Amino acid sequence: MKKYGVLLIGAGHIGLEHLMDIYYREDVRVIAVADSDAERAREAALRSGAACFGTDYRPFLLRDDVDIVIIATYTRSHLSILRDCLAAGKHVLCEKPIAVSLDEGRELVRLVKNAKTKVLIAHILRHNASYKKIKELISEGKIGKPTLLRMTQNHHALNWERYLRLMEDCSPVVDCGVHYFDIAEWLTGEKITEVSGFGTRTQPDAPRDNYALVNFKMSDGCSGYYEVGWGETLRSANEKEFIGTEGRITLEMRDRRMQDTEEGDLITVYTKDGRKYEVLNLPTVYKNMYAQLEVLIDMIETGAPGEPTIDDVWRAFSVANAAVQSIEDRRPVSVDEFISKQ
After folding, report:
1. Could you write out the three-class secondary structure of 115-174?
2. Cα separation, 187 vs 209, whole angstroms
3. I need a surface site. Which of 90, 283, 288, 339 has the fewest CB within 10 A?
4. Residue 1: how many CB atoms within 10 A of its CB?
5. What is the pLDDT of residues 73-86, one digit of tens each?
6. What is the pLDDT of residue 256?
7. pLDDT given at position 286
8. Integer Cα distance of 34 and 30 in angstroms
């Protein structure tokens, strides 16, 4: 078994989640940690057993024992760092969203498609066991044809400074929305064709709308909505419900359950034929960082396609940006027309 050397760039919140889930794995060795904050880089290196750390990632790209780079920095730096990594011949796992604009996003996609090494964008929900099970149930026809998708992900932002920094680069609709627009298309096998929504600032210091509700229509007539909010006064909410002609599937995450949290996530399948309920308790890891790293390693070793593919990533990113345009213009936006005009 090959042991892959990893360089982590960005030792903040999400970077540490990557480290804590991979540093002890048999096929992974953390070589170095880079962060603009020297003390944060040092602490992350100590926690993960990395041999070295620093504030500049570029010298670490010259090391032969670095095979994979995890880019866990703020969105604005993704394109430039990815370009350096690919020039150095490294494989890359890059956090979402891919860029701060459609133009930068197109350039990043172009680089990925022309790269000699492998790149995976971290759409972590693709690697979540509960969402995989829901996709399986929908594909089996458990709820018939999907007709309505309800998805809410609101954060009671106690660490408000962190969220303020995230919003400097992009809207919550893009930052978190790329996950759920991707999930909607992945679960149903259909495309989101139109988006419309509204947004607001629940706090005056928010640099842009920190709350939004986006409605979407899909190519087969299925509809849905995605609600996202980050705020000190917002209530945390996590609701996922997938409704079809023959029934519905609801997902209750483990940390939202009132009891039996040790059983994992709660998936409830209701079918109107016989008015039957089927309850599934599914132990899972919400952010399975190692699972997505394993997908990248499989891409490296077998040439397998990414999960998601870069085309899937681009599609979700485009839908999210079309949603932002809809909120700004206060009108529905055709996704394909939006992409073609940019």
Report:
1. CCCCEEEECHHHHCHHHHHHHHHHHCCCCCCEEEEEEEEEEECCCHHHHHHHHHHCCHHH
2. 28
3. 283
4. 5
5. 999 999 999 999 99
6. 87
7. 87
8. 11
Q: Which amino acid is at 256?
A: R
Q: Domain spans of the chain?
A: 4-122, 126-286+319-341
| 176: nearest Cα among 224, 132, 127, 228 | 228
Q: What is the pLDDT of residues 138-154, one digit of tens each?
A: 999 999 999 999 999 99
Superfamily of domain 126-286+319-341 in CATH is Dihydrodipicolinate Reductase; domain 2 (3.30.360.10)
Q: What string of H, E and C letters represents the secondary structure of 29-98?
A: EEEEEECCCHHHHHHHHHHHCCCEEECCCHHHHHCCCCCEEEECCCHHHHHHHHHHHHHCCCEEEEECCC
pTM passes above 0.85: yes
CATH classification number, 4-122, choose in 3.40.50.720, 3.40.190.10, 1.20.1540.10, 2.60.40.10: 3.40.50.720
In single-letter form, the type of residue at position 217 comes to K
* Residues 204-224, mean pLDDT to the nearest whole number: 97
Measure the CA dihedral 76/82/83/86, to 10°: 180
Instruction: Specify the residue for token string 């809809």.
Output: 326
Joined tokens for residue 293: 């790293």
